[in-house]
Structures are given as structure tokens and as C-alpha cells.
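Changelog entry: the Membrane protein insertase YidC record was regenerated in this release. Current contents:
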Amino acid sequence: MMDKNQVTGLLLIMAMLLGYQFFLAPKVEPEKAPEKAKVTQTSTAAKVTTVDSVALKAAAGDFASAAIGTAQELVLENKDIKVVFSTLGGKVKQVLLKNYETYNSFAAQKKEPLLIFDEAFDKITFELPTTKGNVDLNKLYFNTSSKGGVVAEGQTQKVSFILNLASGQSIEQTYTLAGEGFLLDQDVKLQGLDGLLKNESVKLNWLENVRPTEKDLTENRKATVNYLLNEDEEFDQLAETPTGSKEESLEKPVKWVSFKKKYFLSGFITKNAPIQKANIVATANETDSVNIKTLRANMDLDLADLKSGKGNYQWYFGPNDYNIIKNVAPGFGKNVKLSYDIFLPITRYVFVPLFNVLETVFNNYGLLIIALVLIIKFALLPLTYKSYVSMAKMRILQPELNAIKEKVGDDAAAQQQAQMKLYGEVGVSPLSGCIPVLATMPVLMAVFMLFPNLINLRQQSFLWANDLSTFDSIANLPFSIPLYGNHISLFTLLMTVSSIAYGYYNNQNTPDQTGQPIDMKKMAYITPVIFMFVMNSLPAGMSFYYFVSNLVTIGQQIGIRKFVDEDKIKAVLEENRKKIAAGGVKKSRFSEYISKQMKAVEETQKAQQADPKKKKK
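Regenerated C-alpha cells:
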């Protein structure tokens, strides 16, 4: 048995051995094996680079000398946009809009400028038709001596990228940016390449993966491709659908092609020879919340233009704002869907100029909308007044209309005939109340078309709505109601309540109409409810406009009612009755029409009584 000293000695010996092993013993050099692996890895990388270089040069054909290089970036910007270029392809790599931001960054109150073009998602490629196959300029390295920088207002600045081959052979791409605005000029010039190129079109392939910039994902997915045919300046587009895929082959020359999003626009515009033909595609990526839609335009450009130095084009990267884009190119303003053609004069020459003027007065767009309503409603006041007076006449005649109904019973045809006779006797047209109301319909329809496409309201807050260009939501529902959605818009509810209130007030001042298949008084309550479902996901600014419009209309009618003396109107009707009966007053066109119709009916009835065989079965 070992004593304490032996145990202590053994422990010390073990400690010494362990200490020697870890601190003093010669270490085995492990570097050689990894070094070998490192050399192998480097060798492999070099081999891959060599293979890639060979492949790149082979793909570049006669342009092989430009297939290898180092990409450098160059920035050119003005007060509105910032454009990043790359010497790889001499191309636009990124375009940033300085004064706009996405909805997500706006909602998070973290200002992040909006990228309208980003090479990580989007592509613009020029392909030259060489004798050895098409060569993509984006894969060739250009040289530049340009410095870039910030362009002062009122000035322009250019950046140029040159690819030199053999003596006298070159490709030059020059971009020009003004001190303000969203237009970027691109001039492409081919020199001395006749022996290398085939007499075919230059391919311009443009692809954009649309990212969401607005609150409503469905509206974001309605991005589409617009274009203008060159010969007849006919504007057209792929259908704005949030699902599926749309494609079209354009065989006629095209002046410009644009990728239109909800409120932003990218456009390619030709200055000289038009696009010879194009294939355009819009595909919704329904399961992707990042790249929600893919837009594509494969275009054929005239090679002769590029050879002669006339390869002059423009790119528009900016807001889809009618005031900005209307003068960019012929028909380019049609990228903003102001209205249907029938209502276009109202939106173009009334609402848009009014907005421009009111924007100089009001900073708050809620107050601007109130001012807009007041101006429109008071401009239409004469029609509102005329409609009210017509309804007052019908109310005065209501006792006589009721007497006719009691006399003829349920015979609708006889009721209608007797009513028309009464209207003719007093010189009243029942249509005179409808015509002023119908005259205001184009204004309501113009608002319905304009507001969803009006970028002026984008990210403008008012009361509880932080963005008047999209729906306001005071509560999110745990379920989705068909045709309504999964949220509650308070402005839409207020609009609905005011519409029902207006319908109720109007019904109190409108006489009952006999012989109608639909009870119009009930429709005054049903229609606003139906409209509520339509409006719930539409812009809050539009619902607010209709809400204020209803309130102003009710106020106008209350004021007119106090101003109009119905006793005087009754006296005028009685005087008309006497004068018309005596033949002292020339009948109105409506009264003459009624008289002719009444005589025709009476003659038909007499003929049927004289010859029973002519009676209708």
C-alpha cells in the first residue's frame, strides 16, 4: 500500500509529464497537409477560371478580347434620380428614385428611397447579330474616362462607355442625364463592325421582376406592359390582371414600350426608327410575395440606326404622374389611366388642372378634396336647383296623380296614359328632373376612374387614414367576406351612411311614381350598400370625396328648399293649365309630343271600337 508521499510523487510525475507533453515536447507540423489542400484548391480555382475564360471568349466570338475584365461602377444623379452604371456591359445597373419610398418603409416611418430598377432583379440586354452568333453586350467589359457626379439644375451631363476592338472597330454607349427629371438618354453607336455583323435586327431584351411598392398586394400585381404603335399612334396594353399570364406579339412598328406599375413607370422610347417588332409578356407570380409579377419585352431594333449613329433612345424611370409624363413622347401620358375616353375631357381639363391649382393652396390633401368637392358641387348648383324645382312640381301634382290611380285602378297602361295627359295640360316634363341628375353622372364616373390612378394622393395622410391612395382600415377581420375583404374601411362606412341619408332625404321630397317595375325609393337604400362592397378596398381619398359630396348635396337641397316657394310654383302650373287649354301658350316640345301620342292612342282606340276585328288579342 502506497503512503501519502508516494501518491504525491506519482501525481507530480503525471503533472510533469502532462506539462511536458503540452508545453515542451516538439510539435508535429500539421501545416503541410492543409498546404497541399490549399494548393490543390488554388489550382482548382485557377483551372475553373481558365475554363470560364475560355468559355467566355468562345461565347464572345470576335469580341473575345473584351470578355475578361474588372467591373467598375459609375454614378450619375440629379435632384430626382440616382443612376448607377457598370463598365461590365456599359449598362444601367440600378436606378433609385430619391423622393419616393415604398409603402413598407413609409408605414415603418423609415425613409428608404425607392429602387425602380435593380440588376439583382431586372435586366436590360443588347444582343448584336454577329456572323458567329448573337453577342450579349452585358457580358463585355467597356472602358470609360467619365467621372459621373451630380448634375446641376439647368445642366446636362454625359457618361460614355467604349469598347475598342481592332483599329477602327468600336462600340460606344453614351448616357445623358439632365439636372432634373426622370429621363435618361442612351445613344448606341457601332463603328467599323460591318464585317463582323449580320444584316439582322439588334435584340433588346428587357425584364423586370416587380416588387411591391404599395399596400394592396392585389393592386401591385396588376402591373402590365403598355405600348404605342408608331404608325397610327394607337395605345394599347396587356390586360391588368393580378393572376395568370398575358402575352402578345406585336408585328407592327412600335414607338415605345413601358412597364406600368400602380404608381410608377419604366419606359423605353425610340427617337428615330421605331421598334420593328416585339413580344411582350406579363406573368403574375401568385405565390411569391417579393417578385410578385414578371414583365418582359423582347424587342427588335434597326441595326442600321446603330451603325449610322442614330441609335438614339430614351429611358423613363419615374412616377406615373400625368403632369410629368404627358410631354415625354407622343401618347406617353396614356400610361396614366385618367378615365374612359367618354369621360376623358372632364378628368384632363377639369380635375387635373383643379388639382394642380389646389395643390398650390393646400398642403393637406384631405382639405384639398373638400375644396375640390365644393368647387364641383357649386359649379353644378344650377343643375341641382333645376332638378329640385322639377321634383317640387311633381310633388304639387301628386294629389292629381293619386286621383288618377284611384280612378283607373291597377291598369298600368291607363295610369301612364292619364299621367302623360296631365303633364301635357300643365306643361311639365317628368324628364326635367332626371336630366340634371344624369348630367352630373359623368363627374361621379370621372372621380371613380381618376382617384385610383392619381399619384398625388400617394402616402398623403388625413385623419385616421395614413395613405389616401389606398384603403383606410380601422379594423382587420379574422376572416374574409366575399367581395368585401378582410378589413373595415371607415371612410367607406361614412360614405355609405351619407348615401343612405341622402336617399332618405330625397325620398321625402320625391313623389311616388306609378307603373314602375322597380321601387326606386327602395333602391335608394339598396344601392349604397352594394356600393359599400365595391368601395371597401378602393382609395380612401375617393370614399372621402363621395362622403363630402353627399353632405354638400344634402346641404344644397335643404338650402334650395327654403329658397323655393312651392305656392308660387303651384300658381304657375295653374296659369299654364289655363293658357294651354285656351291655346294662349305655345306648348313645349314634350307637351307637343305627349299630345301627338295621346291623339294616336285615341284614334287607335276609336278604330278598334268601330271594327272589333282589329282589336288586339
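The longest helix spans residues 32-60.
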